[in-house]
Amino acid sequence: MFSTALTLHLFPLHRTTEFSHHHHHRSSRYRRPHGKPLRINVAKLSPSVKEEIEKPPSVPSEGSDEGNEVLTSWESIGLPPVTAAKRVVLVRHGQSTWNAEGRIQGSSNFSVLTQKGESQAEISRQMLLEDSFDICFSSPLNRSKRTAEVIWGSRAEEIVTDYNLREIDLYSFQGLLKNEGKAKYGEAYLQWQMDAPNFNIDGHYPVRELWSRARSCWKKILTHESRSILVVAHNAVNQALIATAIGLGTEYFRVLLQSNCGVSVLDFIPKSEGGSPEICVNRLNQTPSSPISAGGGRKTSTRIILVCHGFPQNNLEGNPFSVDIPMNMLGTIQAQKIAELLLDAKVSTIVSSSAVASVETANAISRVQEAADCLGADCVPRCVETKQVADFDVENILHKTKRDLTRFQPLQSSWLKGFEEEVQKELWEKSGVAWQLLLEELSKGSSNPENVVVAVGHPALHIAMMGHCLNLSDEWLGLFHLDAGSISVVDFPDGPTGGGVIQCINYTAHLGRWSVPITKIK
């Protein structure tokens, strides 16, 4: 594989920026047909929550904890208030022996890290070496506890284990090879694969129980006096932690991927009026290896890669939303780094806005793709279709603001919430058209063995399109943060008409020393 080296220090935790976010929820995870408008009823409960209301209360088992409570309403997952900004860094454990064997682990404690898992943990340790964590919470299971010990290194503070951070409880499934589970449990195993939120085994609904347990975890994490917190746990429980923090139901299980030693960053900001804090996902699933070559979750060769163009010349002063400003030297380097990273993908189409910085970034990707044979990444030259589309041009919308443009420099977490409501609405509507265009481009190449569409544009466009991918509303525009030169990967294991699975958001490891720290503030 042709992958660039990862930077060792990727996101120092110096300071947390402000943002705004509202907790609303869509009615279901449904992929609407092309051309149909997005309709969301934020007042309706998630199907997963409705089922919890209708399901009889479970009888607590011996040694049960608060995590076994059954949700009785969507509002009941409200997070505890915080008095100061907090940053929580979630890490999944490194590869375990049962990961390597393809054995169902659940909350069992028989597997340990493989040599590869130890190496992944060491890379994560180096990535986070200079970050000033106040505390580390860890699952008590060996594979996570060992990963936490490697990452925590020589720090003086003790690691705090929390039983609620254990992996999802899978009862009779635990210990089975995946083919054994299919042979022994038939329809039940198929439901676990295809309809996990409604999966029932031994009288339990594991995913629903997990979502309730994640709420309990947040109570302990957010009420702790620390402001910079490391949490080392597992795939499913980390998914549940992220989903419950941002207000997503159990139907989002397996939608926000967590790879071995993948790092996700969440910021929590107190509200002046109190109540649940505002949340921003600063990044999702930044992995020790390339998200392009390694992948994760269900295997697929159908994906959309969202690329934020490199820094334009006026990024640090003047108007950040001009379409006719080329990249500065840093932006040019970032574009080249992106192009090198994407050599591990056979890109079929590159769609970009007409903004100069986006076109320059797209051209850099195209040149490197077409030279794949010369660079040793492929045996034959690649032919890449490139096009510019007006529906990707959102800078003119952002320029309609009557507010001081310099206040958006640099583009900080949840900066889009600083715009007037009418500007946000127009951006949301245009980004919805752009997202449908990408799905149509993906459908055109559905017969190709590797079907990859790259979209190059302004961070505002990609933040909004990520919301459309998850079937959210414009009130979620403050949910994600994207840096210049970052990539976000959306996989489509069920094809372009199926739901998107988020492989990563705001991945910047490929930028190395040219990566701007995520907490940098002027």
Give an overview of the whole structure.
The protein has 522 residues and is α/β, with parallel strands linked by helices. Helix content is 29%, strand content 14%. It has 13 helices and twelve strands. It has a six-stranded mixed β-sheet with strand order 3-2-4-1-5-6. Strand 8, helix 10 and strand 9 (385-388) form a beta-alpha-beta unit.
Which helices and strands occur, and which strands form pairs?
Elements: H1 47-54, E1 86-92, H2 97-101, H3 115-127, E2 135-138, H4 142-152, E3 159-161, H5 178-185, H6 187-194, H7 206-223, E4 228-233, H8 235-246, E5 263-269, E6 278-286, E7 302-308, H9 329-341, E8 347-352, H10 356-370, E9 385-388, H11 395-398, H12 421-444, E10 451-457, H13 459-469, E11 487-491, E12 501-507
Parallel strand pairs: 1-4, 2-3, 2-4, 7-10, 8-9, 8-10
Antiparallel strand pairs: 1-5, 5-6, 7-11, 11-12
Helix pairs in contact: 3-4, 5-6, 7-8, 9-10, 12-13
